[in-house]
Amino acid sequence: MVQISPERNAQDVPSDAPVRVLFDRAVDQTSVATRFRLEPGVVGQVRWQGDRELVFEHQPMRPASTYEVVLDPGYRDAQGTTNALRHSWRFSTEAAPVLTGSSPAAGDQSVDPAAYISLSFTRAMDLRSLAQAISVSPSVPFSLRQDPSDPRRVILAPEALLDSGRSYTVAVTQDARDADGNRLRDGSAVSFTTRELRTLKHWIGFVAEPPRAAAGDGVWIVDENRFPRRVVSASVDQFSWSQDATHVLLRSAVGAWSDQSLSGSATTLPFKADWAAFLAPGKGYAYLDQGALKILTAGGTVVSVASNVGEASVAPGGARLAFTVTAGSGAEIDGYSVDLRARYRLQAEGGLIDQLAWSPDGQSLAYRLAGGDPTRTQIRARQLSGAARTVTVAVGEVSGPAWQADSRHLIVTAAVPAPAARVSKAFRLAVGDPPPARLSAAQGMPGSSNLSVSQVSVSPDGHQVAFLASYQGLPAVWLMNADGTGLTRLTQFDAGGLGYSCRDIAWTPS
Known about the structure:
There is one protein chain. Helix content is 2%, strand content 50%. The model has no long low-confidence stretch (mean pLDDT 93). It has a six-stranded antiparallel beta sheet with strand order 31-32-33-34-35-36, with no helix packed on it. A four-stranded antiparallel beta sheet has the order 1-3-6-5, with no helix packed on it. Strands 2-8-7-4 form a four-stranded mixed beta sheet, with no helix packed on it. It is built from two helices and 41 strands. The protein is mainly β. Among the domains are: 3-93, Immunoglobulin-like (Sandwich); 99-193, Immunoglobulin-like, CATH 2.60.40.1220; 273-350. InterPro entries: 6-blade_b-propeller_TolB-like, SbsA_Ig. Residues 2-93, 95-194 form the SbsA Ig-like domain. This is Ig-like domain-containing protein. Keywords: Signal. Pfam families: Big_5 (PF13205).
């Protein structure tokens, strides 16, 4: 024998590691195999690599145990020469895996109902056995994934928000095995209590829609961890977040609206509308019903704002509105103060205005201006303070202006030529700079992909851009950095072959 594995007196040997013996010459394989054994015995089988190397593959050995490899005398080489010596050596296997910690920690009393649960072990675990060994009480459906930065840590994601003010226990039985097949040394349990849901922060909301459905299957959230979670179970046509992201405003397939608290309560609202949004806390709701823009106050009074309205948008803070109205052969943007109940003109244009977007500081308003030539559509921005000037930011087949947190840059999408076909790309443009003479695929984001981008939504800190793009024929939620790097697909609904489309993405306000 010229080489052995595990080596003599080796420690912490993986329990599923094969035993290997390399000889200096070709051997009679039957004579060797019949004299080879492990003590204590392990069920397995001998196979050969070439005519000189024995490989013993086996069921997992006992953890934290010493094994002896024995080759009894009498084995022969290929020429018939017999070896009369007994060969043996020992090694010790690794210890059984142990749960070493968790987040939330045992006994935590103020856990965010939106939090993930992480479990840390001494070694990388087998997810299939772990999924069968973990239970959550009260019962909560969940998904598991290894932390990509540390395979010893497992992330448990409840498929819905946990209930506020409730105690939960996560138990792990000894049936859980590590990646080497060792059972968990001890069963463990971690108990904690959730607090009231205060707000959702840094989540991307969206509607998931089953094939051929009349409306979406609830409001879902997802983040960089790629665990889509349903926060509202209801038939949804569209939704919007409250200013503090503790409520969602839902429109059903028949146009009825409700105010749904993420803690579970819901209020049916006494209007049908094409669009609605939260105003500031205590100020009610704005809604658009067949061209009539109205406000339902917190006290239940309906205030008429304007008629012949095309679309509307609520400013950050929820105390102002901007909306479009037809004006002769063109259109104009008007503003409205909710507190003063005062309407005022902001901007007039000679074409169709839509896709209103307030800047995060509330001092500018971006919009799309369409004319007769779709390839000459403009994205424009109107300053509402100081010089109060209006500038063109982009020209082309453009849409979807979305502000970054600095209120100086816009993310827009544009259809541009590509080698195979026209694609829609995202572009980061500075407000006030001359618009690019021509938008090209080479300038667009994401640059390394042929994905066609739609429905962009910028994170509250301005560093990331969520968008929709097709994956396996269905719209999925994707994420990239604001410079186009770090492309990540966040959703893939394909369990059991059932596909879901994603739409109406919107970051939480904070």
